[in-house]
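G., the chain you wanted modeled:
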Amino acid sequence: MARATDLIEAIRTSPAIADDALRAAQLGSDAAPVDLRAMTAAARVLGLDPAEFCVERVAAMHLIPVFRDALRVRGASVGVHRASPGHPETNHPAQGHPAPPGHPEPDEPSDRFDPDLRNLFLARAKRMRCRVFVGGRLEGSGFLVGPDLVLTAWHVVRRAIRSGSTDVTDVSVRLADGRVFHVAPHLAYSSECGTAELLQHAPGSDADVAGKHDVVLLRLKERAARSLGYAELPESAPSVTDARSIYLLDFPAGWDRGFGQGRASSIRDLTTRLQHSVKTDGGSSGGACFDSEYTLLGLHQGRYGSKRKDGKWQAGRLVPLSAFYEGIRPAVTTAIRPAALWRLGDGLEHPVVGRDHFIEAVAAAGEPATRVRGVRLKRRDPTTVDDDQTGFGFSARILEELLQRRVGRHVLIRVPLDQLLDDVAVDIAIRARAAGFAVDAGDGLDGATLAARLDAAAGDRTAWVFVDDASRQLTESGRMHLESFVGAALECEHLRLVIAGLETVQFGGLEFSSAGAASGEGSRGLVVDYVGTFSAADVRDYLTAALESVGVEPNPDLIESHAEVALIDRPHVNGAYPTAVLADIAPQLGKVLKLLGGAALRAEGGG
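Predicted structure as tokens:
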């Protein structure tokens, strides 16, 4: 826990940050918040030190933990003592003697670390690592390097690689949130290991493993949760000439035994492999290695040296990032998650929680060449009545907001099936004309003809037809018109569909579990998205996206704690909360964002 002196030092060294954190700590109080300027003025009247007075008042309000966390998430180093000119408490050597005037502050020893930065790294690291399976059997470790990319060792999945290709079969990963994701058949990058390395023999020179880096980049069929984060590639791969501290993120023998910590150093006459001192086991291969600056250094490959008397190997071997950096960089830098839509409007009253699947499907359908032609929304419980704030109506509002970002190139046509219509095609044509498409709505128009006419009228635009769930049963003629229109629209280049409800109607085309499942060649179809519930992970993703949108680096541990508090005593079934709960927790989540997001979110309405 932070000491009072730590908080006092933070106020003195970072008054602007302290003022922002002080305001945030008082959110939710009935009284008007007191800023640092007012605290300073009061302290001077009383003849007290402003920073000390401020901490005393914060303690009196029982806000020390909140104030401390608000300082930390804003970048203030709370609990780390560094020399600060003019502050007698810290401006001295360890012996307590004043430093000579003009004497420069000594460089920090290499074994020193910033505990706040380290804690943030550890919180992120435990979420980005994963286990890799082939045919349901654990084969090694890996880690996220993008929203849908996992880096691991080539030999971990070599049994699954089809002969003479870069395709894999039956590979899956289990992420830190417990979810299992299947891997797409085509590898984003692949480089096999040396022949001798398959026999646990280290290469003797770079020539032995020229172009062989023992690395694969797996692409998941779905994107991982936003709150899990991923390892970012540095601007350039770090080089290792001298021994340095490392952290290894692995699962020895498949078990979670925490992180490995040791030293990495070069190997004589070899630059494409390094040795390290972390004890590993089967299942560690593919684990991420980070240096003491928390920069990705490479991945663990296998053993090195000879066995000791206790049967353990003397050292481990890792493949440095510098060996394959240029190989994976193109895929990693283009694996960009669609821009987050975490709220509707400018305030905090309408959070978008648990809709990343829908948003990513819309983004995929918006691409010019794609098998995804839209989304099919289904209720987890078809007997429930739709809620405009959370269900199909809310989905239409999300879609409208997403299309507005495309500046007129994508146009929404909303078709509410709230009347008993025999000629659904004519009704869609009339609504298309109202949206600016010159479609002939003459009598006798069938669904397939309508799709062709609307596609031609779109020109260089894309028409998104959102069909609302029917409030009453469709007539037989209306159902046939709609089925005909959907089947034809799937093949039109300028048409996209969102079908909300109508669970009993069978439409043509494929149904994809995710946008990633539609990769490669094949028939077109719609991504299925179920509405009606959300999870704690969705709340974490919402908070993460909101903070990232205003340039605040999320602290995973803080986000997890706030999400848990928001959902305490809320009704759920096996962790699935009804979307009606969102209206109850939205004000609380708004206060959390104002606390963690600082001035950028405090001015927002709601919450």
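The domain at 356-534 is CATH 3.40.50 (Rossmann fold).

Shout if anything looks off.
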